[in-house]
Amino acid sequence: MSRQQPQLPVSSPRLLASAIGVAITAGSAGQMVFAAEKTSEQAPSNTISLGATAITGEAQDETSYNVEKASSPKYTAPLVDTPRSITVIPQQVLKDTGALNMQDALRTVPGITFGAGEGGNPQGDRPFIRGFDAQGDTYLDGVRDTGSQSREIFAVESIEVSKGPNSAIGGRGAAGGSINLVSKKAHLGDSFDGGFTWGSDQTQRYTMDGNYQFSDTVAGRLNLMSHESNVAGRESVDYDRWGVAPSLAFGLGTDTRVNLDYYHLESNDTPDSGIPYTIPAGGSAARTKSNPDKPYAGGDSSNFYGLTDRDFRKGRTDTATIAIEHDLNDALTVKNTLRHGSSMQDYILTQPDDSKGNVNNGTVWRRANTRVSNTDTTTNQTDLFGDVYIAGFKNSFATGIELSREESKKSSYTVNTDTTPGTPVTPRDPGTQCTPGMIGAPSGYNCTSLSNPNPNDPWNGSITRNYAGTDTTGKTYALYVFDTLTLSEQWLVNMGLRYDHFDTDYKTYNAAGTTTFKGDDVSEFVTGQFGVVYKPAENGSIYASYATSAIPPGSTLGEGQDGNPLGGTPDRNGNLLKSDLEPETTKNYEIGTKWDLLNDRLSLTADIFRTEKDNARVQVDTTTYENAGKTRVQGVELSATGKITDKWQVFAGYAYMDSEQVDGGDLPANKANDGNELPNTPKNSASLWTTYQVTPRLTIGGGAFYVDDVFGNVANTTMVNDYVRYDAMAAYKLTKNIDLQLNVQNLTDVTYYDKAFSNHFANQAAGRTALLSTNFHF
Question: What is the DSSP string of 484-523?
């Protein structure tokens, strides 16, 4: 019988969020003042103040696209003097582009693509930075945010993207870079921002961001969000989520500050099943690099191959943070951050399976990918940062200790697709069942038409919870130190060093709870960064840098695609794979220049880089892995962010990436891919977003986003085509408290694919989407 999924309690929180927003808007319009005055700065002019309640020097324009400094104290110099590529997506860019989630926001950063997930590799955000999977390299306020998720941005102030190996900053992983979400926190002053967005495809989104100052030193902030929508150009796909993020701050403007923050997000979606690749007549084994397969929907790009009566995806994220910060003196600050986070995924996702060649005869096998996973993380991070003078030389430094425990529990569902009475309970074989005569009822609706699938087919297989699974626990003990040494007005040296002890325990067990395999691994590694900065002028720099990263076995704890998994993994014959459990290592060489022009309103950057991954894990025979591979990505990046004039802003960039598998090891199947491009690594990508204030009330803007051809696998036998997407916006201030904004995304309604899976399918991006927002500010 079919399985009807119970609904998450979305409606009540949504109504609550809407009611609160409307009530506060109506009740406060005549009472709230526009802003509170900023507190005075107590530190001297040469002090670097990080994460405190005041900012040294002139206040930055909150509407500017240009950002002077990263939020983490581990970056010990302003961005113009930091010898690596860092892009900060500020709040104004998030607003102007109409971004609704992290993936929306990251499309403005060239050199980042997204990969698709399925069952083993989980659903959720899977960014690739400079060609390297960064699914496990996302941070929240500088602390690792473990667990596969689709991240919202209603409580995010800005997003910081650091490119190049970044283990010295964040720890394990980060082969191509890392992503840090900066959360909205309570601050001094009263303010209120609320809004609702109505758009095409039944989009309804409500947000509220209210900050209230309770006393001279205490403030609270509350962010609420409710969102539901379908997806333009995609049949049956829908998103339904709500979230709340309260924040309390004590001691603002004093030497000791305490922040209490909480974040909760729930979602209940009908996930996109994707579009299958075409394959040659000989089946998937006959695919070739010279004629790679591309996604094809049988003539209608809106085709949905899933089953609305079976498919679902639920998610939940809870994060609680206590941060205590104390100024020891005018130049030194100590901060302790304690966080506990929990995330959950629960889904059954139909994969349009092409592996048996059935797509050639116009049919699609509805393969069920399933997952039930829970991840809990507790982290304590203590930092000491500030300025000291040693032998007359200024040192802007940060040092700290990180202790964390992460635990992931992963299991699944058993989806029985054999609907013939009296037959053994075994899944049907798509190789024999998906023929033209078996579409629909004869196959129990496990097979559907490539050109005309019916998402509402009355599938009547059975679904049971499969409690067999894997538990993985990781413990991290780390020490780190960073320093920007000022040798003179023209010369700076940037240094960083981190030691990690990563202890992993794992076990697999059957449905009865009996352990079938267990083991552990201990990795110790040191990563670092070193850069020399020459400043020919105060507003510019030329730099050369070197940085490393390390990826130990089990680094994602089963919550991402792990290129260096733990031992005990069975091969296709059920034999346990042996492995050389050394961390994979990545190193980066970079030369670049950064300039702040037009009175520091516009930032221009350019760099040349070469990233090499050594000791990569490869399979050498049917039962053995070893660290023998090597890959390489090298290229050029350019960016321009900020104001060209008082009325004209730009946020633009370009990335060229030449990627290659240099050595796949001795196994012939891997060796055959030597010289191929890496998956999810376009040679060229570019983004341009710009706005112009036509009148004091009217602002118009638009953007173009280009991504070159992207291969789905290292064999280069699956590919999605390049695309150009155009966006447009217009914003109008009705009063000083109310404004309207219209965003039209994918203006030309181009059909393109923004997520490529390795072999079976690709995910299609949304078509033309119009969003009209009404925003209130007090």
Answer: EEE-SSSEEEEEEEEEEEEEEEEEEE-TT--EEEEEEEEE
> What is the Cα–Cα distance from 323 to 236, expressed in whole angstroms?
43
Report the C-alpha gap between 107 and 99 in whole angstroms. Answer: 9
**pLDDT for res 420:** 59
Which of 358, 345, 326, 455 has the alpha carbon at shortest distance from 410? 345
CA distance 714 to 669: 11
Whether the CB-CB separation of 715 and 738 falls below 8 Å is answered with: no
Q: How far is CA 445 from the centre of its chain?
A: 35
740 with 774: CB under 8 angstroms?
Answer: yes
Its domain, for residue 249, covers: 11-777
- Going by C-alpha positions, the residue among 532, 531, 526, 547 that lies closest to residue 480 is 526
CA atoms within 13 A on the CB side of 264: 8
CB atoms within 10 A of CB 62: 8
The residues of the chain scoring below 50 in pLDDT are: 1-59, 422, 424-425, 572
Query: Do residues 129 and 161 lie in contact, with contact meaning Cβ atoms separated by under 8 Å?
Result: yes
Phi-psi bin for 600: left (phi > 0), alpha (psi -120 to 50), beta?
A: left
Asked, for residue 2, whether it belongs to a domain, the answer is: no
pTM: 0.90
Closest among 331, 506, 483, 346 to 411, alpha carbons compared: 346
User: Which tokens in the block code for residue 660?
Assistant: 């290659």
**How many Cα atoms occupy the beta-carbon half-sphere of 192 within 13 Å?**
23
Tell whether 201 is covered by a domain: yes
CA distance 472 to 576: 17
The runs of H, that is alpha helices, within 113-264 are 167-170
Give me the torsion for CA of 447, 461, 346, 568, rounded to 10°: -80
Tokens of 351: 């994969």
User: In this predicted structure, what is the pLDDT of residue 27?
Assistant: 37
Residue 433: per-residue pLDDT: 62
Tokens of 733: 């201030």
| pLDDT tens string 491-509 | 999 999 999 999 999 899 9
CB 190 within 8 A of CB 216: no
Distances (CA, A) of 750 to 14, 301, 544, 599, 765: 32, 11, 40, 39, 9
3-state helix, strand, coil in the chain (%, to 5): 5, 55, 40
d(CA 747, CA 726): 5
Beta strands, E only, 68-165:
86-89, 112-115, 127-129, 132-133, 138-140, 143-144, 156-163
Let me know if residue 34 belongs to a domain: yes
| Beta-strand pair 738-745/769-777 | antiparallel
Per DSSP, the residues of 391-451 read TTEEEEEEEEEEEEEEEEEEEEEEEE----TTS-S-PPPHHHH-SGGGSSGGGTTSEEESS
Q: What is the CATH number of the domain that holds 61?
A: 2.40.170.20
| Total domains in the fold of the chain | 1
Burial pattern 193-227, b for ≥16 Cβ within 10 A else e, equals ebbbbebbbebebbbbbbbebeeebbbbbbbbbbb
Q: Which residue pairs, CB below 8 angstroms and at least 24 apart, start in 646-649?
A: 646/693, 647/692, 647/693, 647/694, 648/690, 648/691, 648/692, 648/693, 649/64, 649/65, 649/92, 649/690, 649/691, 649/692
3-state secondary structure 252-296: CCCCEEEEEEEEEEEEEEECCCCEEECCCCCCHHHCCCCCCECEC
Q: How many helices (H) and strands (E) does the chain have?
A: 6, 37
In-domain check, residue 426: yes
Q: Using CA atoms in the order 120, 575, 578, 502, what is the torsion angle rounded to 10 degrees?
A: 40
Dihedral angle of Cα 78, 79, 84, 88, to the nearest 10 degrees: 140
